[in-house]
Design goal:
TIM Barrel, single chain, seven-stranded parallel β-barrel
Length: 248
């Protein structure tokens, strides 16, 4: 079994459990003004993360607050790169005031899912991040086009899997609203992740398991059971002898 893994959550999105989740996770991806977040929420989230000893990254997404960034907004690749750069830069500025280093960039929602298979979008996300700093790590859905995009942009890459989402046999997330898209039970999610870390095989909906590699496990901070799931997952991982730590 994998003996060390990062546990991350997407925070700063206006949810009530952010402070409690920061006591559980080892990394946080902070919304930075696109799908959610503003200067005040960024500063508050970063300050709480610093106090909890949690590593921080930027979580840029489409400027679609009504749809929470889960709808594709048609944009040219260069416009996506500028959007990502502007959001990441906004978080870096807020982090400087809070005394918190920004380590990674993770695209949100529809932007991340589109970048999984569209190389032009993946390259735009990576270029936007690199325009702010080539020291940033691109945290991306494991086994997708974003991994190659990070390399082309000169960025290190970290791969993530999702404790609370179902997978297709292609290694992509089952679209929300379809059967099997969400893993609601905390115990089920924990058992699933332990099995994955032991074998490298992720269960899928409607097909055989798919082999993936991961540096981080995500629990979506906006889910109604996010806190219970994160706690159950951390307890299960530590009980199995897995060390939780931010990805390198």
């Amino acid at each position: 079994m994998t003996r060390a893994i990062d546990l991350n959550a997407d925070l700063g999105e206006g949810m009530a459990d952010d402070a409690a989740l920061l006591a559980v996770v080892t990394s946080a991806s902070v919304a930075c003004g696109g799908h959610a977040g503003d200067a005040a929420t960024m500063a508050a989230t970063l300050a709480r993360a610093r106090a909890a000893g949690v590593a921080c990254g930027a979580h840029p997404g489409y400027a679609d607050r009504e749809g929470f960034g889960r709808r594709v907004v048609p944009m040219e690749a260069q416009a996506i790169a500028r959007m990502v750069a502007a959001q990441v830069a906004a978080l870096v500025e807020a982090a400087a005031g809070a005394g918190v280093p920004i380590r990674h960039v993770k695209a949100h929602g529809a932007l991340a899912n589109l970048a999984a298979d569209d190389e032009a979008v993946a390259d735009a996300v990576a270029r936007g991040a690199a325009a702010v700093s080539r020291d940033l790590i691109l945290l991306c859905i494991a086994g997708t086009a974003q991994e190659g995009a990070a390399a082309r942009a000169g960025l290190a890459v970290a791969r993530e899997v999702f404790a609370d989402r179902g997978y297709t046999p292609r290694g992509r997330l089952v679209p929300r609203g379809r059967p099997g898209a969400m893993i609601a039970g905390a115990d089920e999610a924990a058992a699933r992740m332990l099995g994955f870390l032991d074998t490298g095989l992720m269960p899928t909906v409607g097909g055989p398991p798919v082999r993936l590699a991961a540096d981080s496990i995500c629990v979506h901070g906006d889910g109604p059971g996010a806190l219970a799931m994160a706690r159950a997952l951390r307890a299960a991982l530590e009980g199995a002898g897995v060390r939780l730590a931010p990805f390198a």
